[in-house]
């Protein structure tokens, strides 16, 4: 119905729109983008509702079907767009400020984005091949709670081809984590090349999986992990992680901005421990 009405309006106004100029033209373009956006989200929401049967909060693995429906493309595009944005943040040369470094060489820088949110970039060298890390961080992402106590659960709600997943993540609210428990709903994409892997993602909003009672739904802005083989030694990888998170809830910015780099260092420590076992 909405698309039909929009088309009708466009038809009626087309001769006038052709004659507009300047700011009015910009405004038209923005309105157009908004409509496309609204329409896309409507489709994604309906589709995920149908495919996962998620009117309750538990998705059983057998409910998740890899249906290559047309609407899936929208999730894929959202993931691609998140990856593109995250990589372009990483590529920015200016404005990074040193945050912390550990004696093992792990280092975190931060940058304030337009709008005031701080993003964090962790750089580390890990004793693992690109494939091993891809396997642990993307293929077997649901097992992450087994080696990372900051994570209570990660559930793949939907797989769209080999590269895209829709996930629900729950962090733990342990003593070390001053922010407390959060849940996230994200689209995540992987892009695997011979000597590097890109894992990117961002939050999505789905009516079928609304914020749950007792949880604060945090939001991942465009974020990514880049894993690159070190030239000389393919058993070691460079690990670069852009964390871009709106933790939500009523917390002072300064508290959040201290907890996030800490969470990155903790994550990396647990990842190293896990790698030393295999
Ligand atoms: C400080 C509080 C709010 C949050 C602490 C937990 C943070 C560090 C946790 C919660 C959810 C987690 C993410 C969940 C899923 C993935 C996808 C995977 O392919 C790479 C790791 C990544 C991206 C995790 C990174 C760490 C993460 C962001």
UniProtKB/TrEMBL annotation:
<dbReference type="GO" id="GO:0008203">
    <property type="term" value="P:cholesterol metabolic process"/>
</dbReference>
<protein>
    <recommendedName>
        <fullName>START domain-containing protein 1</fullName>
    </recommendedName>
</protein>
<dbReference type="GO" id="GO:0006694">
    <property type="term" value="P:steroid biosynthetic process"/>
</dbReference>
<dbReference type="Pfam" id="PF01852">
    <property type="entry name" value="START"/>
</dbReference>
<comment type="pathway">
    <text>Steroid metabolism; cholesterol metabolism.</text>
</comment>
<keyword id="KW-0445">Lipid transport</keyword>
<dbReference type="GO" id="GO:0005739">
    <property type="term" value="C:mitochondrion"/>
</dbReference>
<dbReference type="GO" id="GO:0050810">
    <property type="term" value="P:regulation of steroid biosynthetic process"/>
</dbReference>
<keyword id="KW-0496">Mitochondrion</keyword>
<dbReference type="InterPro" id="IPR000799">
    <property type="entry name" value="StAR-like"/>
</dbReference>
<dbReference type="InterPro" id="IPR023393">
    <property type="entry name" value="START-like_dom_sf"/>
</dbReference>
<dbReference type="GO" id="GO:0120020">
    <property type="term" value="F:cholesterol transfer activity"/>
</dbReference>
<keyword id="KW-0755">Steroidogenesis</keyword>
<dbReference type="GO" id="GO:0015485">
    <property type="term" value="F:cholesterol binding"/>
</dbReference>
<dbReference type="InterPro" id="IPR002913">
    <property type="entry name" value="START_lipid-bd_dom"/>
</dbReference>
<dbReference type="GO" id="GO:0032367">
    <property type="term" value="P:intracellular cholesterol transport"/>
</dbReference>
<keyword id="KW-0813">Transport</keyword>
<keyword id="KW-0446">Lipid-binding</keyword>
<dbReference type="InterPro" id="IPR029866">
    <property type="entry name" value="StAR"/>
</dbReference>
<feature type="domain" description="START">
    <location>
        <begin position="92"/>
        <end position="278"/>
    </location>
</feature>
<comment type="subunit">
    <text>May interact with TSPO.</text>
</comment>
